[in-house]
Amino acid sequence: MADTRDELAGVVDLFGGLARDELEQALVELAFKQGKEVEREAFTAEIERAVEEFYLVETAVETRGESEADGESATVLVAGPAAFPTVPENGEDLPHILDVPDRTIDREGLGESVAERLREEARTVAAAGDVDRAEELLDVSYDLESWAPVATDEVRETLDRAFE
């Protein structure tokens, strides 16, 4: 079982991207390999926290390959800008256990999408004066610039209002 958000990102990164149900199944398989008993539903809150904190980000992708799903669009989670993807114990076995289609991820578009989400959240946080969340988002703004070809100067300017 992935014990940290970086390990969640590491599991997702093994595949390039996973749908939420695929990630939950991967975590169940991983827990089994590690001899732990868990309920699949137990992962939902942890995955949601990882998304909230930019360890995982959602994006639409197209599948590719020789399946009936070829060319279909799906929403998947990918390792986000706050993550340092780390493969958990026994994680390297997951690609041999799960049958996940190949997917094409538009990294540039994803960067813009995450930047827009960060801008919106920064405006909300600044308006509320939430200093703790502003500090977290400030860190994410720097992480995002190294993760994707986007500029987040205006996000930092917006967040400055939360510190006033």
Task: Provide structural commentary.
With 164 residues, the protein is mainly alpha-helical. The protein folds into two domains: 101 residues, Arc Repressor Mutant, subunit A (Orthogonal Bundle), CATH 1.10.10; 56 residues. It has seven helices and three strands, in the order αααββαβααα. It has a three-stranded antiparallel β-sheet. The protein is globular. The model has no long low-confidence stretch (mean pLDDT 90).
CA distance, first residue to last residue = 42 Å
Largest sheet: 3 strands, antiparallel
Q: What share of the residues does DSSP label as strand, in percent?
A: 5-15%
Strand order of the largest sheet: 2-1-3
Q: List the secondary-structure elements in sequence, H or E.
A: HHHEEHEHHH
CATH architecture of the largest domain: Orthogonal Bundle
Number of strands: 3
Q: By helix and strand content, what is the structural category?
A: mainly alpha
Count of DSSP-assigned helices: 7
Brief sketch in words of this structure:
It is built from 7 helices and 3 strands, in the order αααββαβααα. It has 164 residues and is mainly alpha-helical.
Features of this protein?
DUF7109; 3-stranded antiparallel β-sheet; globular; single chain; 2 domains; 12% strand; 7 helices; 164 residues; mainly alpha; 3 strands; Arc Repressor Mutant, subunit A
What is the strand and helix layout of this fold?
Layout: H1 5-15, H2 20-33, H3 43-52, E1 56-64, E2 73-79, H4 94-97, E3 102-104, H5 107-128, H6 131-147, H7 153-160
Antiparallel strand pairs: 1-2, 1-3
